[in-house]
Amino acid sequence: MSAYKFLGSDVPRKDAVEKVTGSAKYIEDLHFAPMLYTKILKSTIAHGLIKRIDTTKAEQYPGVKAVVTGKDFPNRAGLYLVDRTYYAVEKVRYWGEPVAAVAAVTEEAAAEAVNLIEVEYEALPAVFDPREALKPGAPLVHENLAEYERVPVFYPQPGTNIANHFKVRKGDAEKGFAEADLIVEREYYVPQMQHVTIETHKAAAMWSLDGRLTVWSTAQSPNVVRQILAKSLGMPLNKIRVVSNYIGGGFGGKAGAAMEGLVVPLAKKCPGKVVRVVFTREEDIQGSFTRQALYARLKTGVRKDGRITALEYHMVWDGGAYTEYGVNIIRAAGYSSTGAYDIPNVKTDSYCVYTNNPIGGPVRGFGMCEMQWGLERQINEIAAELGMDSLQVRLINGMKDGSTTASGQEVQHVAFDKCLQSVADYVGWGEKSGKYRGKGIAGLVKAPAQPSNAASSCIIRINEDGTVHVLVGASEMGQGMLTAMSMIAAEALNIPVGKIEMRVPDTDFTPYEWQSVGSRTTYCLGHAILRAAEDVKKQVYLITAQVLGLPADELFLDDDTVYWTKDKSKKVSLREVADSCKKCSGEGIAGPIIGRGSYVPTKMTNLDPETGQGKPGLFWTFGATAAEVEVDPETGKITVLKLATAMDAGQAVSPQMCQVQVHGGTIMGLSTALFEEVRLNQGRVLNPNFTDYKIPTIENTPEIKGIILETPEGDGPYGLRGVGEQPMIAVPPAIANAVADAVGIKMYTFPLTPERVWQAIQDQEKTNRTP
Amino acid sequence: MAESVTITFTVNGEKESRIVSPSRTLLKFIREELNLTGTKEGCEVGECGACIVLLNGRPVNSCIVLAAELDGKELITIEGLAQNGELDRVQQAFIDHAAFQCGYCTPGMIMSARALLERSPSPSDEEINEALSGNLCRCGAYQEIRQAIKSCAKK
Q: How does DSSP assign A327-376, residue by residue?
């Protein structure tokens, strides 16, 4: 039973009827007129100088209204490191980089015309492996790194390809290794993946003749889009309006300012017309953020009793051609580099490295899937070498209340042990599986990766009849923001969810929200809603006090009525309070009730540049995944027999929606574990479609067991914490650990494709045969 | 090739006649000319199933069917399922089982499920797998989708 009146119960999603009837409007469903269609000309080489662009023929093509190149919008843009232009200026840095674009009255005309643009390149030596890019004399992707603006917590190294180097020096790693009875050191690799949201990236822009710019976008973060556009255009924020409707899946791919800048310069040339771009599936896979590949070397020291004494983590991330967002992923991976474990001595170096590969950026998990892959695999190897049970090693080292993270931040309200134990129980841990069958487990942790001052805000309007409108700037991309936030508002106001309406963001009307990313909304926006509700109630009670002639602090609101706590027969309807706001004599008391609430974290700190010590985590969400698999040694095919993920949600807002989220995240994790990899050749994406880039269908998705734990988050609104991204993090290592248990092979990379598994089995047999 | 083709068809129970370009896909025709935007585009090449509609009761990827083929046929889109303000039972089941998150694949998913239940009122797991194997859901609501369809089965 939930301790709350509304939280912890299941209500139909606020967007449910719209979504099952096809009436939910996504950006491409909006009717724009007059509208121009956009087609983009992309670079055909990975690295080179643009010697000449001739757009004459394209401009003359019938129906073409505007053609742009990098010269039309040369200003740089970016979230953390301002290193990117929307169209290439002077040089291209990755295959498929936008070089020019056409806006025309029909899609066909735009497609014909864009191919008439002539571009001449002078190829430059390119680099596709970040380890090579680190070497002296490697081709330099950004010559002007020193000039780029940046948020000061990032440390690019001009004259190299290093866009950021994040360090952790906790305790004394050397001493820790000296205390160890066993030291294990291995290399791990995680390839690029793509979000492949079923809705591709889309944006539209219109420049009014009075100088205002309106942008419609699939953006997860309309306020950040507005901020980045304003900065790069030199415009004030109040002249830019960003509208984000329902979003057909985000997973980080639509965070930051992804591609709105492509239509803005075209729109500027055609004032009064809406210029729209719709990415094809190929453009989406090739041209939107990919998950950064990770080349990692991990060394762990452990005592005979299973206690880890030291960890050294060397991470080289493939940031791709631009790392405006990626620099923060490697930072988050760095400050979280002990995963869910309490390790006293840590030396971590995390490098974000420029290459001529597609742009790296945020993907669900924000570095945690990649970083915790090696960690969770290595714990199994440690256990095997010590002859201990891997669950035991996890429980011995797992974080507890009072443990410290890699950055020395103390964690509280931790039930990591329960997460591990619950999934272990589900797969029957300790009971032997059959032949070619095995069990594996992995833990996970993640905090939202956000600036220490990332803000949220909320406005609550009480309508004249006592119903409610809640205005927020968070996005609805499937995670259930509208429903969850309505439930928090319901709880805070003590008004049923059915009387609360909430809509998707529009920066001209909805209050500021930094971004809908990092599983931060429930916590951060939740706080803002709580404060706005308090503000509403304060106003309601002040007015009621005058109407009833009672003290304001002795009143309470329940649904549609305000009561006196001492005698419930003394009451007034919320409708009267909200609407008439007057005394019997007719004198007015106060105007319409509008509550406001703002939230900004106050306990996060910057991190020491040399040691990485400080408080980067607003809250830490723990969880675990366990799997039982069967491996076919003839084909290398893995069959998942059982798969469970436990997440500690603090308090589930809606248990049903929380389960759907845990199931969905686990499936995405499984998909990356078994199928997903962006295949690159000299920076060119070889599998930009669903035939070659596989994600699971209903047919190859096993039954997932979701386990929701509720250890209240001390500072969270109603004890809530976010669980959106996390469920996928531990799946790949849990599967690989199960495969190791089944057939003894050790996997250092994923996806665990049949050929990879088969090859590993062959290699192992060969090793076993050779004395 | 002819410049344009006249087609006569039924869409969600209404008889219609239109002139279309022979190269127009059914998906673009539905979205841009019939203004029924519930049908979604996810790949344009028949890989994802977001654009599935019922043509003479059979589920088809409307992105790889030409609008001209609609002539003389009956088209049902996601907008045609609810009758007199009442949701179709599959739609209601998707809500009850929270069988979606972002909702972008949902119209195609529901149309596939609807066609399956028409031809097999109590589908087995294998039949569900086969009928929905052309519908991708990136949010991973497959488990809930299966439950929703099973709840619609005639006992």
A: HHHHHHHHHTTTTTB--SEEEEEEEEEE-SSSPB---TTTTHHHHHHHHH
Question: Which chain A residues contact residue B48 at CB under 8 A?
Answer: 198, 281, 690
**Unique residue bearing structure tokens 């979205």:** B31
How far apart CA B92 and CA B87 sit, in angstroms, is 6
The answer to whether the Cβ–Cβ distance between A21 and B38 falls below 8 Å is yes
Q: Report the share of chain A in percent with pLDDT over 90.
A: 96
DSSP label at residue B80: G
Q: What is the mean pLDDT of chain A?
A: 96
pLDDT in the model for residue A602: 93
pLDDT in tens, B72-115: 999 999 999 999 999 999 999 999 999 999 999 999 999 999 99
The sign of the torsion formed by the CA atoms of A388, A394, A399, A401 equals negative
- Angstrom distance (rounded) from CA B26 to CA B47: 16
- Could you tell me the two tokens for B95? 């809500």
pLDDT at position A1, please?
A: 59
For B101, which of A26, A480, A666 is closest by C-beta distance? A480
Most B CBs within 10 Å: which of A640, A698, A704, as the mutation test of the B interface? A698
The Cα B3–Cα B86 span in angstroms is: 41
Helix B89-96 with B142-151: angle, nearest 10 deg: 130
The model's pLDDT over A685-743, given as tens digits with 9 standing for 90+, comes to 999 999 999 999 999 999 999 999 999 999 999 999 999 999 999 999 999 999 999 99
Whether B16 and chain A come into contact, CB under 8 Å, resolves to no
3-state secondary structure of A240: strand
Distance, in Å, from the CA atom of A138 to the CA atom of A131, rounded to the nearest integer, reads 10
Please give the pLDDT value at position A590: 84
Quote the minimal CA–CA distance from B91 to chain A in Å.
6
**pLDDT at residue A223 greater than cutoff 60:** yes
The distance of A62 to chain B (nearest Cα, Å) reads 18
Please tell me the distance from the alpha carbon of residue A724 to that of residue A712, in angstroms, as a whole number: 17
Q: Which of residues 75-134 of B touch A (CB under 8 A)?
A: 77-79, 81-82, 87, 91-92, 94-96, 98, 100-107, 110, 128-130, 132-134
Question: How many Å lie between the alpha carbon of A584 and the closest alpha carbon of chain B?
Answer: 44
Residues composing chain B:
155
Q: Which residues of A are catalytic?
A: 725
Between A56-60, A244-248, A403-407, A578-582, the lowest mean confidence (pLDDT) is in: A578-582
Confidence at residue A756, expressed as pLDDT on a 0 to 100 scale: 98
pLDDT at A581 over 70: no
**CA–CA min distance B98, chain A (Å):** 7
Amino acid at the residue A337: S
Chain centroid offset of residue A591 CA: 41
Work out how many CB contacts closer than 8 A connect A with B: 161
**What's the CA gap between A293 and A360, in Å, rounded?**
8
Is the distance from CB of A731 to CB of A430 less than 8 angstroms? no
* Closest by Cα among A584, A580, A578 to A562: A578
Per-residue HEC secondary structure of A80-115 comes to CECCECCCCCCEECCCCCEEEEEEECCHHHHHHHHC
Q: Which residues does chain A have within 8 Å of residue B138's beta carbon, measured at their own beta carbons?
A: 195-198, 249, 251, 668, 695
Terminal CA-CA length for chain B: 52
Q: A315 near A165, Cβ under 8 Å?
A: no
Q: Give the pLDDT confidence of A117-161 residue by residue, as tens digits.
A: 999 999 999 999 999 999 999 999 999 999 999 999 999 999 999
Residue A350 and residue A336: Cα distance in Å, rounded?
11
Closest CA to A677 of A688, A661, A666: A688
